[in-house]
Amino acid sequence: MKSAYLGCAMSAVAAALCMAPTVQAQTQNPPFEDSAQTEDNGRVSLHDIIVTAQKARTSLQHTVGSIIAVDGDRAAKEGKTTLSQVLRDSAGVQLMGTGASGQGFFVSIRGVGFAPVFGQDSPVTVSLNGVFQQRAQSTRALFYDIARVEVVKGPDSTLNGRNALGGSVTIIANDPSHRLEASGTAEIGNYGLLAGQAMVNIPIGDKLALRGAISSEGRNGYLSNGGSDSHVTGMRLRGLWEPSSKFKIILTADHAVQNGLGQQQSSTGLIDLTQPIKFPTGYWTSNNPSSGYRRFINDNYYADITADLGFAQLFVQPTYNRSRYSLESNTFSLLTYQTRLSQALASSHPDPTGIAGALASTNGKEISRQDQKTLEVRLSSQPGARIKWLLGGYYLNNTEDTGVNQQGGTGYTTSARTTTLATTSVPATAVVDPGIAPPAFYSSYSPHREVRNLAGFGQITYPVTDRFRVTAGLRYTAERKLRNEQVGNLCVANSIQTSTCATSGNSSLNGTPINTTLFYLLDNGAAGTTTNNGLWSASNPTGNRVFFSVPAGQLNSNRLDYKISAQYDLSPTSNVYALVSTGFKSGGFINIPPPSSGLLNPGFTSTFDPETMTSYEIGTKNDLLNHRWRLNFSAFIYDYRNYQFSYAAQVFSPTANLGYTARTIDPDYTTTITANAARARTFGMELESTVILSPHDRFTLNISYLDAKFRTVNLAGGTAATVAFGQSLSGFALPRSPKFAISPGYSHVFDVGHAGTLVASMDGRFETESNLAIPSNAAALAAGWYRQPSFMKLNATLAFNPAKGNWGVTAYIRNIGNVGTLQSISLPTSYTNTVPVFGALNQTAIGFEAADPRTYGVTITAKF
């Protein structure tokens, strides 16, 4: 199958290149120059740009592999002030919101990528000036005074480690320089957008220089309840000391703050689970009140030390990164309110509205902190050396601590169930007993995670001939993950009073860090009775308090990754290449008790295995027609082992022995876990084309094709190709892998006499439907609730560049058609068509996060 795919792709490459040598013979430009798109007062042309994706300065068009490079100045002129805007048209690249984690994004490259949760790692590395950012949302407030953005598509593990399984994104800020300069940008737009950036570079003598930059953005929320707002501030100070031409130090400190409600999910409202999902006309309308206030602070401190040792170049980069995240939430579930109100009314409860409101609200506070230290040391060959080589070592120590305290109403009642437990998405089917107040639960937990990583790597490029080069690279990684011991501690009161829970139970365990809320696992009372089990105590072990333990854990990973490539120059400006590379993403912990606890169904464990991938890629890069047509093509196959993904499963056993006489685990309860699919594979192709039609006209076209599917899935609770609820995942498309993504763009330059030029541009993106999640049951699989339908979005800009003066004005409109699309979705876990959940229909609510609506604004840029 691999040979067939690659054979077809190679035929396409050969057809595309058959004319390359004759066309390119007209050009005299030597290879290994910079290659990027530049402008002369709006007029466009193709030239060269230097990139550092290979930890050395190389030409973009002569670097093996699929790499994107976007110039920072050009992006600013086009009004693109965020990473998602800069990369929105890139083939194979998607940036998604981070949902509840705040104002940020996560990156998916060629279908590889997801929003990491606590204890998991993103498979795409995001770094700022080479400093790895564990939480990619930190770069949201640091995207200013940017020299360029580089994206490596495909495994980049030999140079960037375990987090680069799917590729890497590097944001490169401008270095201090020995010239006096300043710049500024101001932006105003709809949704109350006010933003600005400023930079000043000051030389101090001929050896020192300082460069300072600041950025701020304030915007109202896209959602009707104020959610998905943006309030960010960033500051960066860089100092340069260059005592000689052979030694240089750049010291950097940057600080970023993000406040506000942050990105949030909207809701479909109540829907009939027996029907395909229909999203509302207004994707940005939310029936729920906003859910809490977020604050994210991120600081980076690092040094870039370079020295010419004569025989080699030395680079040393020590870094320290610190981030703090806090969330104060006050959420209200419309679904819970409506359903519990109907139950309370049916039971003739004296205060049905009050009880339903109390059950639907949840108050909580989350505090998370991360501290990271890294050190990278590299020795590399001198620029211009015939044989290019690099040797390096890397050390990382990352610790994360999270503390959560939560209080809220539950879906349960203190009365007993009056009906038999059914497989429903909401466990309780009994009505509220009119004589007993509903319960509240109080929980807290503070998990700790630590990652220690030590790696050595090297790469060498050998020119077999003047036209033919081979490259080989290796990286050996030794990694250790640690998790603290966690003791489960959950209190459920018979009335909503914090003090009741705070003083009850085993005092020696009060305040102990815990893992999760186990109350949802319990049947609250004996079926067919109105027995109230009361609070937990030593003499009443059947009360509403549960303790369990998640022991401390340690996971060790040792991995040898490699890269082998060959590249042949068909002409000075056309080449073909072949590349084989590997990557891995380490395993991790699942915060559930171990199998030895007796609480789990057979086959479930509290850890998941590392994910590995081997990539096979062929491609060609060409500057044709005397540098007027850039045409790059690649075809690739990804072969996964132990592909990591998350899904909802019936982890806990309803027959578990809890040590109580009147307690069982609710068989309806599911929890989201990370698991491994034994095999998955992706075949894909990408075409990137830029044509300079005239000095005034430019046309771009980026196309990506993905065929990404599960092959073998071995999960607990199912067969070799099923999950616990019975749906087959063999042949199921991997999440965030649209079959086709097409991004055309066109710009035209209008001369406005002696005043200057107007540049009118339009671009768009079309995507076929794709999966956003793994369906949690067979019904969800059949109905297709997890899918993002196909869509087309259009954007337009109009920029004025004066003939005199280094400034410009750009007006933009994005998502002209106000097309609603999904970034994430939460699915119901299970239900049955035969047993009604609420009344006559099986109903629930599905939460989703919508992408940006139509936005428009004006930016003004100036340089001095």
UniProtKB/TrEMBL annotation:
SUPFAM superfamilies: Porins
The entry's keywords: Cell outer membrane, Ion transport, Iron, Iron transport, Membrane, Receptor, Signal, TonB box, Transmembrane, Transmembrane beta strand, Transport
Principal subcellular localization: membrane
GO CC list: cell outer membrane
Region (Disordered): 353-373
Topology term for the membrane: Multi-pass membrane protein
Protein name according to UniProt: Iron complex outermembrane receptor protein
Record's subcellular location: Cell outer membrane
Domain TonB-dependent receptor-like beta-barrel: 280-816
Similarity annotation: Belongs to the TonB-dependent receptor family.
Lineage summary: Bacteria, Pseudomonadati, Pseudomonadota, Alphaproteobacteria, Sphingomonadales
GO biological process: iron ion transport
PANTHER family the record matches: FERRICHROME IRON RECEPTOR-RELATED, TONB-DEPENDENT OUTER MEMBRANE RECEPTOR
